[in-house]
Amino acid sequence: MKILNVYRSEPDDTTKKLVEIVTRDREADSFDLYVDSPDYDALVDKIFAADQTISWW
Amino acid sequence: MSKSLGIFVTNPNQFKHIMGITKAAKAKGSNVKVFFTWDSTHNAKKEPEFAELCKIADVSICVDSYKNMGYDIDDIPEGLDASKMATQAQHGIIIEDYDCYLSL
Amino acid sequence: MEYNKVCLMYRNKECVVDGIRSALGLAVENMYAYGCVMDEVEMDKFNELQAESLEMLRDMEGDVFATKAANCEINDLEPITIEELGEKLRDMTHIIPYGII
Q: Using CB atoms, which residue from A18, A20, A57 is nearest to C100?
């Protein structure tokens, strides 16, 4: 199970806690969508490579 | 063959990302479906590139949400037709029928 | 047949009612659908229609949880901690942080 965590804003403590539990003992990747110029091409590649994508607030 | 991608939109401030991701996915040969609900339906009236999004992806909006946001349901946004003024069943289609899922 | 399990999470009062409606929409499509009201969101008491939506969701084996005791009391939601929610999310096919914070 490979999980991609996409962050729409910088993760707060609640989001960090949930990510920690959800990804425990699982393969995980992440993508920061809140940066100035996100690399959408790279994001789509990551989404296609993941079994599940979670886009956090 | 590229995977298909369904995008469920609940945040009205993500339109730039929706366009960017949709264009990138289409460039890889992906089939993209986008469904807007609740206050993200404002995007259909307020985002200048909304009609362009409708040309490159299968776009629909929640008609109940659109009405709740104060719009007349007969005032169909540019790029959509009456069949795309839809229900939450569109979200179900994204989950059931598309390879990859993204909420924004 | 494997059924989808979906959890929508709400951290903004304005999103809760539509978010529960979204969960109900997925339950109608034969998915296990859950919602969770998080943080210090202070919910209003459900009107009759909203209370019926919650009841329908439960009839279809879904549920709505809340991390704040007052929300559980006012709208008969199931109490849950962030840690319990995290464990529940591990079992979901789709996790949806809904709307804005």
A: A57
